[in-house]
């Protein structure tokens, strides 16, 4: 069976689309601050989704359910620097508005930086 140029372009476009779809859980996990072994687990499950579709669904669910380290990472450093603390609170507010952290997480971190 011979393919023409148009058919080959369609096949390449479908492969590229499939790769983007496979990477969706990984992208979500990275944006939510999920790192290390949790991110590796999501990546492996996502790529196994090429062969077993259910593993991609599991990876997607885990990327949405597991908590990232966004709030914890902002909690490190000098708590005495007021301008730095205000910048961290502003960053936390942006994360809250984008939906990356919950209102409760925002309030907890804000209290920590306002002490």
Condensed summary:
The chain is an all-alpha fold. It is built from six helices and no strands.
Write a concise keyword list for the protein shown above.
elongated, 115 residues
Task: Tell me about this structure.
The protein is 76% helix and 0% strand. By secondary structure, it is mostly helical. The protein has two domains: 5-65, no CATH class; 70-114, no CATH class. The longest helix has 27 residues, at 5-31. The model is unreliable at 71-79 (pLDDT under 50).
How would you sum up the major sheet?
Answer: none
* Average of per-residue pLDDT values: 82
Q: Beta fraction of the residues?
A: under 5%
Q: What's the domain count?
A: 2
Please report the total strand number as a whole number: 0
From the spread of the alpha carbons, the general shape counts as elongated
The secondary structure category is mainly alpha
Reading the helices and strands in chain order gives: HHHHHH
Number of helices, where a helix is a run of at least 4 consecutive DSSP H or I residues:
6
Low-pLDDT segments: 71-79
* Through-space gap between termini: 72 Å
Helical content band: over 70%
**Rg on CA atoms, Å:** 20 Å
């Amino acid at each position: 069976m011979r393919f023409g140029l148009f058919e080959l372009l369609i096949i390449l476009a479908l492969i590229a689309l499939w790769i983007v779809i496979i990477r969706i859980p990984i992208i979500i996990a990275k944006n939510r601050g999920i790192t290390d072994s949790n991110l590796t687990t999501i990546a492996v499950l996502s790529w196994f989704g090429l062969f077993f579709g259910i593993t991609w669904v599991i990876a997607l669910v885990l990327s949405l359910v597991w908590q990232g380290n966004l709030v914890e990472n902002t909690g490190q450093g000098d708590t005495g620097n007021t301008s730095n603390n205000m910048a961290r609170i502003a960053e936390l507010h942006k994360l809250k508005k984008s939906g990356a952290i919950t209102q409760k997480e925002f309030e907890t971190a804000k209290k920590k930086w306002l002490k």
